[in-house]
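Weekend entry, working from home. Most of the wet-lab plans are on hold until the incubator is repaired, so I used the time to fold the two sequences that have been sitting in the queue since the last round of cloning. Logging both here for the record. First:
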Amino acid sequence: MFLIGNFLESVAVVLDSVIEIYIWIIIIRSLLTWVNPDPNNPIVTFLASITDPVMFRVRFYLDKYTGFGGGFGGIDISPIIVILLLIFAQNFVVKSIYGIALRLQ
């Protein structure tokens, strides 16, 4: 059973790191919108390609259920909502996996 426990602990650590990196990528992408960077820049293209699908989905649901289209007064709140959901996933899912792993060791 300790092998399964070690495996789950490793999954929890990797998942925690991936979520943390994705949070920082969303923050960087949000900050880049303030300076209006060149859209053909490979870094900007990469950041947009990995964050826009999630942001568009959140904006769609905000528009559908609230009618605000992802923003209040011209401020896009979809990054805030995505970051809050990721923090929830970090605290609930990752800690749950880690707790199960500790019980199996």
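Second, folded right after the first finished:
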Amino acid sequence: MSSILIIDDEVQICESIKFILEYEDYSVDYVTRGLEGLSQLKEKEYATILLDIQMPDVNGFEVLKKAKEYNPFLNIIIISAFGSVQNAISATKLGAFDFIEKPIDRDKLLITVRNAVKQFNLIKENAEMKQAFNPDDLLIGNSKAMRKIKELIEKVAPTDARILITGENGTGKELVARSLHQKSERSEKPFIDVNCAAIPNELIESELFGHERGSFTGASQQRIGKFELANKGTLFLDEIGDMSLQAQAKVLRAIEDGRIERVGGSKKIDVNVRIVSATNKNLADEIEKGNFREDLFHRLNVIPIEIPPLRERLEDIPEIVDVIAKEIANRYKKLAPVFSEDALAIFKGLSWKGNIRELRNVVERIIIIVNNNPIERKDIDFLLPNEKLSIDTLIDGSNSFQDFKEKAERAFILKQLELNGWNISKTAELLEIQRSHLYNKMKKYEIEKGE
């Protein structure tokens, strides 16, 4: 339950606002003196303050300034008599969230408080996330591909350049977006994410730009869109390739103008957002099909970042498994297990079509079911995906028929070595080749125990 503090020297107004807000399930306190309100802020966390300007002991401007020092995330709404509207406008320039004119309109009060509390909670959530995660810990792996991505993030994060992240499902596109935000100069402001594929086309514009009350059937109250919520922060448009053409046109206009317009509204609203977008689709193909605007693509694709699938950076698997295992074990209040080299070798032999998301699910399954520590190959064989490195994977990663044959031979030899516990003599016998021939093959394909 969000807490609201009212600071106003008129008890009747305080009681009236308290009654309205408590009916909407807010926790409400009030004081009639500015200094008393500042003392209250030291005792309890509030999401929003409703503050009068003219009070007998201390000016509301001083309360506003001190309250912001106590908690910079706090949203302060000025409640002002008609004669001091100019004071209220001045206060908003000093950091107030909004102002409401007396006598107070109930609907205006509820909408403004709702928006202020929502923004406070988003900013607080982002701040807590920043404390909980080191940006460098978000992206796991030290493969050549991951090192390049991390280096690129370091270069572009401090800028406001728009970034398009591409990659298969489950590769960690959102983690790259969060890392960009946390390393940027906007890190203290909100990180707002929108999954464009999860929102029906008829609602995507309302989600992004907000709507006015009565603008369409079911719009019973005003709604603040993601662009406004992300003001001065980062807006992450995930699965941008699934956005409708109509919404694409509005996003393009918002980027060009730096302003948006709510659905059903006529007022232009200034927004300052850094846009990071992501997709698992080939947008060049989508442009050819007429599903994506080419002008929007060029606006979004200032800095492209392509995340490779897990099968192309298998050397990162041990580190990824270690981090995931510790996180999941902590969640289930279990001792974090250690995976043996043979167990990790099995992980490296899988195709991971679902990428890190699939790997996480498998590790969680193992931690829940297997109690041994360390975890050996024999403990997990029955819990792993049925397929090994697939034919499709080999074909997609091969440049020629000879390349395909060599990759297939390498995968087959590696599998036989694993099945026979890396016993060279036994494996050579089963393959019906000499031990020296098998050694030569292992050297050629750079096959080593524990990979």
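Plan for Monday: verify the second prediction. The two ends are 51 Å apart (CA to CA).
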